[in-house]
Specification:
single chain; 258 residues; alpha/beta; Rossmann fold
């Protein structure tokens, strides 16, 4: 699967990328990682999968377990900092994990040089693709239209203040119209799967679910697969939530996982 073209720097991007697969990507849906590899390679980039990373620590942070966050930081940051030293930019398929390295850990460890180094090299994946597009290094040889796309912008992506880059990239696909739903899904970490908070989570999700069903889109997507799955389970007009990178892979006409 992995190919290694010579990386070409475009603007601030090196074209040499390490994918932090995340717990979700490793254990719940590894196919997302394959979609990342295929899309980034199609765009002439060198992409590697980071080996032996630990959880980013966001779930423990949300539960207030700062000792666990510290242990995970000590496991991950030296590995990621070494990759940055080797010339890699860093991406991840889950906005919460990107946010952990771009914002939360830098706030918790403001004097840690390696944390700062990792922060500077970590990108939202569609932020990265958009930067490549601005430098005329993003392929637009799309084979399939996506039609009507309902896109729930994940809270942990919006707080990064990078703008709606997922929408912007998907809108480059001809005959595709992306409708952005900027409202919380209600999943909120484990909020949607705990007995004591499930009903509140569903109530929070209802306004987004109504918008999805009103649109009855060809595709429904969210940067956060957990948020997307929660909303798709509640909606009547869609059966599944697809990761935006999966939609991009389909638009290119690239084969998915076997």
């Amino acid at each position: 699967l992995l190919e290694y073209p010579e990386p070409q720097r475009v603007g601030e991007t090196s074209g040499k990328v390490a994918l932090y697969a995340t717990c979700y990507g490793n254990y719940s849906n590894p196919d997302i990682g394959i979609d990342f590899v295929k899309v980034f390679q199609h765009n002439g980039m060198h992409i590697d999968i980071i080996e032996k990373e630990a959880c980013c620590g966001m779930p423990k942070l949300e539960l207030g377990d700062l000792d666990a966050v510290d242990r995970l930081k000590e496991a991950n940051i030296p590995l990621l900092a070494r990759l940055v030293d080797e010339g890699y930019d860093l991406i991840a398929p889950i906005p919460s994990c990107v946010l952990m390295y771009k914002q939360e850990l830098p706030l918790m460890y403001p004097d840690d040089a390696d944390v700062a180094k990792v922060k500077a090299a970590f990108y939202d994946p569609f932020e990265y693709l958009w930067l490549r597009h601005k430098g005329d290094a993003f392929e637009t040889d799309f084979k399939e239209a996506l039609g009507s796309v309902a896109y729930q912008a994940a809270c942990h992506q919006r707080v990064q203040n990078i703008g709606p880059k997922t929408r912007d990239v998907l809108n480059l696909v001809p005959d595709t119209e992306v409708t952005v739903l900027e409202r919380c899904s209600g999943h909120d970490g484990t909020y949607a799967v705990k007995t004591e908070t499930r009903d509140k989570s569903v109530k929070i999700a209802r306004p987004v679910v109504r918008k999805i069903d009103e649109q009855a889109p060809t595709h429904f997507t969210s940067d956060c697969p957990m948020a997307g799955t929660h909303l798709a389970d509640l909606a009547q007009s869609v059966d599944v939530a697809e990761h935006p990178m999966t939609l991009l892979r389909k638009a290119y006409g690239l084969e998915g996982a076997l």
